Amino acid sequence: MDLNDANLQTLTEYLRKTLDPDPAVRRPAEKFLESVECSQNYPILLLTLLEKSQDNVIRVCAAVTFKNYIKRNWRIVEDEPNKICDPDRTAIKANIVHLMLSSQEQIQKQLSDAISIIGREDFPQKWPDLLTEMVTRFQSGDFHIINGVLRTAHSLFKRYRHEFKSNELWAEIKLVLDTFAGPLTELFKATIELCQTHANDVNALKVLFSSLTLISKLFYSLNFQDLPEFFEDNMETWMTNFHNLLTLDNKLLQTDDEEEAGLLELLKSQICDNAALYAQKYDEEFQPFLPQFVTAIWNLLVTTGQEVKYDLLVSNAIQFLASVCERPHYKQLFEDQNTLTSICEKVIVPNMEFRTADEEAFEDNSEEYIRRDLEGSDIDTRRRAACDLVRGLCKFFEEPVTGIFSGYVNSMLTEYSKNPSINWKHKDAAIYLVTSLASKAQTQKHGITQANELVNITEFFVNHILPDLKSSNVNEFPVLKADAIKYVMIFRSQLPKEQILGTIPLLINYLQAESIVVHTYAAHALERLFTMRGPSNTTLIAAAEVAPCTEQLLTNLFKSLTLPGSSENEYIMKAIMRSFSLLQEVIVPYVPTLIVQLTQKLLLVSKNPSKPHFNHYLFESLCLSVRITCKANITAVSSFEEALFPVFTEILQNDVQEFVPYVFQVMSLLLEMHTSSEVPASYMVLFPHLLQPVLWERAGNIPPLVRLLQAYLHKGGVTIANVAADKIPGLLGVFQKLIASKSNDHQGFYLLNSIIEYMPP
């Protein structure tokens, strides 16, 4: 593609079409861009458009397209062709920093991401002048440019927080520190001075505080792996200023918004993170500064309100206290009984309360609520931080802390019993307190694995959890119902087996609850209970023990998929899969009805696949029903083919990329189940299409396609030799392509084994 006006015009037209809501217009445009993206000059054309186009929409679209193009193609993969030619790579690196810094913020963010993707591959060896080019821009005095540099540096250095130690990494960090740490410190001091100069100019303060937040994030990334000598020498500068910023309260920066954190909150919460990092990893060096930070953060916690916008700040501040209290040489700070009582009363209990905002999330944004509560993506919630603080305090002061909290739990439960319909939030907080007190160690697979011996888990379950689960109205007090189900889930390894068995019918009942959170928790709890292992590594709960509830279980699981908001609920689908797996032949009588429901669901989601986990468990459930039924009755294969083939045909014809590998897997399973030594005609029709090179271009298709071809050869090597002899060179071509690739050569040999084993000599 030459760099000329005609190509720029063409590209503009196609980019505009990719924004069209009509798939008939959008898809061909996306396909066209895919087909030309390997041409030389394509990325340069995009960058030219994003710089010179008069239409802002096209500029933003070009920026997003460029970033995604870099994301897909910049990395050079062994055995695969280089998708971006060297002159284009050089031109991109020569122009992108300048372009990024001279663009508006929307475009700047996209290009900043692109730079960090390129930097991850090429910096420092293949792009040595990147940092110097960026650092020189600090002198510009223009904070639009400076923030662009800081944002890019942040996305470039962020990975230091989770990379494993290696010589290459340390060499890179040393290079970065030599070039970047000095100018960053000078910029930090200069920005703080400017904040004082412009203390009454709200617009200037907004820009300066967003710079300070980015500088604080860079400080965290550069100090994460080890304490650099430069920062140790300049600790006084950094820590004094951090402390001053933490205690600063500028009325101009306070926002009226109760939801969205303002610049002041974001900066302070990052400083709490930085202080926690030093308290945890560099406690000796940080010792002189620790008392003033503990005081400042304590005051911050006691004076900050319950609004949602302070959540990140409060949770990071509590995490700082948590990291301090579990270090042996800060123990003396917390030994006094009054201090412990004060922490429990002023920090932990208030932040464990179920607020109106939590209630709204529970009802209106259940997916996000579940993700935070069940999957542990609640790192920055107040409750999670308070829970971590309880665990930290229990490390050295288990007895006094348990004693203080037992009093709180009892008084909360007494409040609840006075008037349950009004005081239900007291019980919710009590359950949360007991859970955080009792759990010492926890895993996703087993729930709580080590518990606080001073808390009687079973007694609390019988007195306070079971009555809620046994309530006849599944829709009453949904939050408490969810808490009760979660208690069973978390303490499943600690509760006696008879109690767990007793909860199964109750949990099956809760699959009908209207609340998305409640029926999701019920499905997830059942799935977790069904995977528990007993002493001899068999499942703790046997199929025979669940068999009496089978019909109710399957009916309620499939019914819950029809409840509003749960049509593609991955937890329910996973519970269906796990129930099939546990019950095995017990489900055979129900399969004819179940397979109809599963194929209808498959047809529906294939129109627009959006939940990868849900889709995965859906296909797993289909495979399980095929395996289990055909094990009991091998002739059932044909009825499965009748039910599934129409849907599979539609998926293959519409090239639903996400589902094609699954379809090949299920087809190979069905073909392997056939008892005859011939390949059925319905499969032979498809055989020539399986050798088309385009199918083998997608890495995800290779393992299932190889397995499917192996099934063809196993069942009908002779048939293929007689009927489709012209396809043998195609088979060998596939073998040749596979062994040329390091990641797929083993698949090539699987195929060759089957060719030699099953084809006539």
UniProtKB/TrEMBL annotation:
Annotated compartments: Cytoplasm; Nucleus
Key word Cytoplasm present: yes
Predominant subcellular localization, coarse grouping: cytoplasm
Residue stretches making up the Importin N-terminal domain: 29-102
Pfam families per the UniProt record, alphabetical: CAS_CSE1, Cse1, IBN_N
SMART domains: IBN_N
Keyword rRNA processing: no
Transmembrane residue ranges: none
Protein name from the UniProt record: Exportin-2
Organism expressing this protein natively: Polypterus senegalus (Senegal bichir)
